[in-house]
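Propose amino acids for all 356 sites.
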């Protein structure tokens, strides 16, 4: 999904204040010192135009300097590159008519400045020991690492459980495909599992950004559980069962699945509609192209599976033909046709049947 400019700006602000970043170090020091602060990062022209007085500094930015300057009243103004502290004890006077739901004076000022300018505004409450980030009128409360890791552990557990169930379902699906007995209910359950994985993956990616340098291990876990291999398998499965098997149409189907409520995603008829079919029920038998199954065989190089399904039209037609003439697969770029044929039959029932 494409992020809006405001969402991109908020992500930038979250990265800027994540653990391991100099400004986060300063914020942790400010909280530990029971201090408050109002910090403006970037869009300095408009920030300076919205205030007055204060001390012009133009000194190099460091976490320690930011901490020391927070001991004074007023705002601290920093350039967008975080290289210089431009002002301290700066008095901000944003338009008081700008609507905000914030109650404290510092937070109200921060919210209004984020509407008035394109700056990232950071407000630290000395009384509540809370840090809020404001971008374009939207706020985000900085969370402690312990709280983030609790959420990480929940999502990792969801991914592990769902991935184990999904792997079992995909193995069963392969056998059903090779026997030409896949029902709409079978693929509906699997698409639902893929979407659960996607939701958990998105949540973890968001947490990884918030964890900064402390999110490296989580990223490795995420790649193992829901990396590019899972993405490829999901895309190929959609292409296998969609009325239009093009990559572009598969991307649109994924967008529709993503936007569907959970109750619709588990409804076989609704899933069939998104795939491009009408009047199907959960027991309707569907015949896959075979892209996903073919891609699992090592001798099928990139692009070869597409050529094979273009020729045969379905996995079952392929299976019927290669029983007697496996060498024909060499015409489509398969270097070892007999190995591919043997692999497909082993997937189906555990023993080779080529030439049987």
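Proposal:
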């Amino acid at each position: 999904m494409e992020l809006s400019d405001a969402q991109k700006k908020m992500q930038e602000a979250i990265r800027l204040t994540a653990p391991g970043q100099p400004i986060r170090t300063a914020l942790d020091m400010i909280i530990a010192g029971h201090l408050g602060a109002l910090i403006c990062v970037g869009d300095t022209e408009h920030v300076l135009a919205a205030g007055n007085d204060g001390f012009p500094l133009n000194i190099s930015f460091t976490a320690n300097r930011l901490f020391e300057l927070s001991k004074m009243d007023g705002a601290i103004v920093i350039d967008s590159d975080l290289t210089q502290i431009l002002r301290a004890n700066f008095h901000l006077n944003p338009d008081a008519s700008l609507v905000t739901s914030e109650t404290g004076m510092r937070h109200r000022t921060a919210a209004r400045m984020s509407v008035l300018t394109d700056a990232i505004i950071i407000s630290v409450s000395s009384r509540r020991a809370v840090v809020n980030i404001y971008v374009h009128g939207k706020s985000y409360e900085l969370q402690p690492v312990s709280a983030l890791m609790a959420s990480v552990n929940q999502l990792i557990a969801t991914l592990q459980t769902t991935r184990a169930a999904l792997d079992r379902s995909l193995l069963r699906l392969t056998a059903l495909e090779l026997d030409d007995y896949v029902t709409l209910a079978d693929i509906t359950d699997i698409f639902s599992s893929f979407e659960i994985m996607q939701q958990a993956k998105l949540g973890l990616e968001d947490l990884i950004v918030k964890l900064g340098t402390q999110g490296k291990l989580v990223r490795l876990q995420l790649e193992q559980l829901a990396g590019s291999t899972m993405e490829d398998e999901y895309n190929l499965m959609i292409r296998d069962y969609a009325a239009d098997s093009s990559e572009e149409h598969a991307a649109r189907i994924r967008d529709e699945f993503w936007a569907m409520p959970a109750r619709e995603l588990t409804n076989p008829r609704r899933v069939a509609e998104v795939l491009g079919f009408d009047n199907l029920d959960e027991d309707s038998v569907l015949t896959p192209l075979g892209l996903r199954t073919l891609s699992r065989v090592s001798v099928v190089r990139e692009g070869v599976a597409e050529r094979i399904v273009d020729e045969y039209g379905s996995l079952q037609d392929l299976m019927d033909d290669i029983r007697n003439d496996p060498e024909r697969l060499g015409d489509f770029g398969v270097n070892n046709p007999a190995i591919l044929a043997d692999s497909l039959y082993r997937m189906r029932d555990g023993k080779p049947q080529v030439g049987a």
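The beta strands are 37-41, 51-52, 55-60, 75-78, 84-92, 120-125, 130-135, 138-141, 182-183, 285-286. The domain at 146-286 is CATH 1.20.1260.110 (Ferritin).
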